[in-house]
Amino acid sequence: MATDPHPMPPEAGPGEASAEAGVVMLDGPDGVAVAMSPDAAEETGRRLIAAAKEARSQGRTPAD
Prior knowledge:
By secondary structure, the chain is of the alpha+beta class. The chain contains one helix and three strands, in the order βββα. The protein has a three-stranded antiparallel β-sheet with strand order 1-2-3. The two termini are 19 Å apart.
């Protein structure tokens, strides 16, 4: 029997990003919060965009 590798549905809404005192803050669902340096935030953004493109090419959407 195959199991779903992602038992929780993906979040459909975007996180909120802001800058405070030279630190990038990313607030997500369920109280998730991440503080990053500007360099780390830029690289994370690039990686998120690349992963989003790959996920779209796989054909599954949150409604599936």
